[in-house]
Amino acid sequence: MPRDGEPRYRSIAADLAGKIRTGVYAPGEALPPQRDLSTTYGVTLMTLRQALRELSDEGLIVQQPGRGTFVSPPHLAYRLGSLRSLTDDLRDQGFEVQTTVISASSATSPTFGEGALRLERVRSFAGRPSIHQISWVPPEFARRLSDVNFETTPLYTALSAAGIPVARATETISPALLDNASRHYLPEPPNTPVFVSTRLTYTVDDSLVVEDRAVILGTAMQIRAERAATALSMTWSSTTP
Questions:
Q1: Rounded to whole angstroms, how far apart are CA atoms 215 and 130?
Q2: CB of 24 closer than 8 Å to CB of 71
Q3: In terms of domains, do 160 and 188 share one?
Q4: Which domain holds residue 15?
Q5: Can you give 17-84 as a three-state secondary structure string?
Q6: What is the pLDDT of residues 116-136, one digit of tens each?
Q7: CATH number (domain holding residue 165)
Q8: 3 state SS for the chain
Q9: Are residues 65 and 138 in the same domain?
Q10: pLDDT band, very low/low/confident/very high, at 77 (cuts 50, 70, 90)
């Protein structure tokens, strides 16, 4: 059943995700056609496609134009190796990271509604602003973070200290060009190549606890993959001299 105020597409995505994780839809199996699913859930195709986009962002499905929608094969989607902040990952790799908090205030989130925490930060390497990041935390968790200094305390560290049970996360990293909103904080030429990282973090009861978007300068960072027969390791590497 959808929770009060929850967008319909989110409840559909949660229902389909549950069926995928419990094996109702097996890895590699095709989901029913979109028109059939929209009829089953009693929604428009647009709403159904929003739900499928959520599942795609989580790496649970693969949409193949002209063929249909399929459950992702095992190990197809890149999964996080740890539930930590990007800053923690970079510091562990030996990079000195400076965090500037642009704002940390209560705001209305498209996902969480009124009273959510909107946390906007800029990360710098060797004095060069390189990452513009906006994180949202729902109201029920935001209240526990009201006294946190996010310039010195990473968000994931604050969640742990507040007793918020983080269990899993998914991350999608896409290439893009620097937009005007982020360019205000990352003073680079227009259309500079960037990575856009979208991370969704969940509690043990599968409630979304952080919705995070980071714009990362492609001229400052790169992704390095190390492949073995049974594993894939992916790390960020600095390109800053």
A1: 8
A2: no
A3: yes
A4: 8-71
A5: HHHHHCCCCCCCCECCCHHHHHHHHCCCHHHHHHHHHHHHHCCCEEEECCCEEEECCCCCCCECCCCC
A6: 999 999 988 767 898 999 999
A7: 3.40.1410.10
A8: CCCCCCCHHHHHHHHHHHHHHCCCCCCCCECCCHHHHHHHHCCCHHHHHHHHHHHHHCCCEEEECCCEEEECCCCCCCECCCCCCHHHHHHHCCCCEEEEEEEEEEEEECCCEEEEEEEEEEEEECCEEEEEEEEEECHHHHHHHCCCCCCCCCHHHHHHHCCCCEEEEEEEEEEEECCHHHHCCCCCCCCCEEEEEEEEEEECCCCEEEEEEEEEECCCEEEEEEECCCCEEEEEEECCC
A9: no
A10: very low
What does the block give as tokens for 127? 């004095």
Q: Are residues 63 and 92 in the same domain?
A: no
114 in a structural domain: yes
How many independent structural domains does the chain possess?
A: 2
Q: Are residues 90 and 60 in the same domain?
A: no
- Please indicate, yes or no, if residue 207 is contained in any of the structural domains: yes
Do 128 and 29 belong together in one domain? no
| Choice among 69-78, 102-111, 181-190 with the minimum mean pLDDT | 69-78
* Tokens standing for residue 97: 């990271």
